[in-house]
Amino acid sequence: MPLGVVDVTMAELALEDGHLWYELQGTGRPLVFIHGGWSNARAWAPQVDRFADEYQILTLDVRGHGNTGATDSERYSIERFTDDLERLLNDLDLEQPVLCGLSLGSMVVQEFLNRHPNDVAGAILAGAVRSMPPLEVPNSTKALFSPTPAIAASVALSGSTATFRSMCGSIRAATGGDWLSVNPEIRRDAIAAVDDIDEAEFRKIFDALYRYNPPDLSVDTPTLVVHGGSEAPLVKRQGRRLVAGLPRGERVEIPDSGHLVNQDRPAAFNTTCATFLESAFERRKPASSE
Predict the structure, then answer these.
(1) Average pLDDT, consecutive stretches of 10 residues, N- to C-terminus, the chain (290 residues)
(2) Alpha-carbon gap, residue 67 to 17, rounded angstroms
(3) Where is the AB hydrolase-1 domain (predicted)?
(4) Residues whose CB is less than 8 angstroms from the CB of residue 216 and which lie 6 or more positions away in sequence, other chains included
C-alpha cells in the first residue's frame, strides 16, 4: 500500500432487527469512536484524520443514526446500544480497544466498562454525561415526570430538527452560554445532522437517553473525561463525580469549547487524547519474556 494511504472498510453488521453500519480503517491497536445523540460517525472526522495512521480506527453509526438508520425495535436503550457494540467488537475480533464516546456515546462506554472492566485498554469520555437531564434522580421519579410524551408531540408537530433546536435553545437559556458549541458553523452542522433522523427514531433516541440509569463506576480501567470550558455546569459536575469514583480517572477541561469539544478544539482534544492513548496502551503491553 502506498505510503500515507490507509485501507478503509465500510460494511454493515446484521442485527436481528436491522443492520449496524461501521467503518474500519488503519492498522495497529484498536481505537473505537461512538458518537453523540442525533449525530453520526462523521462527527469524529478530526480524530480519524489524526489517528488513522497510528491505530486501527472503528467508527459506527448507532441505531437510529446516520447510515444505520431505523431498525425494527420499538424501543431503544443505552443497554441495547451497548449490546450492539459488544457484538461488533466480537465480530471484528477487536481485543483490548480504547473506547472513546461523546455524550450519548460516553454513556455507552460507561455501560460497556461496567460490564467488561478488564476488556478495554482505556476509555475516553468526551462531553461526558451520566444521565439526562444531568440531575440524577430515581428512575421511579423520572417515570412520573417523563418529558417523552411532550417530545413526541413536538416531533410530530414540528419535526426532528425543530425539536432538537428547541431543546438546545432551552439548555442555552438555562446555562447562559454556548454550551453545545462555541462555533456557529459547528452548531449549524450538528443541527443539520438531525435532518437525517426521522420522527420515530428521534423519539426512541430521546427515550433511551432519558431512561438510562447510570452505574456507579469504580473500575480500575484508565479513564479520561474531557469537557469543554463552556459545557453546561451540571454536566461538568457529573464529570467530576464520575472521575472521583475511578481509581485511574482523570478529567481535563479544554477552554474555548463546548459540548462538542472534539470539534470545537480538535487540535487540543487530539493532543490530550494522544498522551492518554500512549499511557493506556503502554499499561496493557504483555510482559516481555526473558
Answers:
(1) 68 96 96 98 98 97 97 97 98 97 98 97 97 77 81 94 94 88 96 94 96 93 97 95 96 98 98 96 55
(2) 15
(3) 31-270
(4) 245
